[in-house]
Design brief:
single chain, mainly beta, Lipocalin, eight-stranded antiparallel barrel, 6% helix, 61% strand
Length: 171
């Protein structure tokens, strides 16, 4: 089994919500955490438990009004981190796997299931990428309103985690 440290600068999240005016897009780097994985029968399998997190303060849309409202809605002071915990990983087709765990956002945890790809494009690199549509109301979040336009409650989230082998621990 190998342990990987998530590389914050290479690991990203993309989120997109629709509004009555135009799409709202957020793209942010900065995931933190560790991933354990093992290779069996030529396939890479994630090994639970794995926990990753992202600071809410890092979320950026390149629109100051949207960014301020996002931090206010997510209550970044009270709930400064978004976390994901992997509890189960099952093989799917090809390099894909089915991940089950929880997502904690705005202080609310919900069980999630996501199909993701897991690959090692280089000997010292692990990439995990998946996508999920969530309903922000399930996390006790009211869809924001900006002046005259309204945001839909469904948010498409795509994440890519990039990990490098962890340094061996001294025994």
């Amino acid at each position: 089994m190998a342990r990987y440290v998530v590389v914050p600068g290479l690991s990203r999240v993309w989120a997109e919500a629709r509004s009555s005016l135009h799409p709202i897009r957020v793209e942010t780097a900065g995931f933190e955490g560790e991933i354990e994985a093992e290779e069996t029968e030529g396939r890479i399998r994630l090994v639970p438990p794995t926990r990753i997190s992202l600071a809410v303060g890092l979320l950026k849309s390149n629109n100051a009004l949207v960014d301020a409202e996002l931090k206010r809605k997510l209550d970044a002071r009270r709930f400064p981190r978004i976390t994901g915990e992997l509890r189960e990983a099952a093989a799917s087709s090809g390099p894909r796997c089915l991940l089950r765990g929880s997502l904690t956002l705005h202080g609310v945890s919900r069980e999630m299931e996501v199909e993701a790809s897991v690959r090692a494009p280089e000997a010292d690199l692990l990439e995990v990428e998946g996508e999920k549509v969530i309903d922000m109301r399930e996390f006790n979040l009211v869809p924001p309103r900006f002046l005259i336009f309204k945001v839909e409650p469904f948010v498409r989230i795509r994440a890519r985690l990039v990990g490098r082998p962890a340094a061996p621990t001294a025994v």
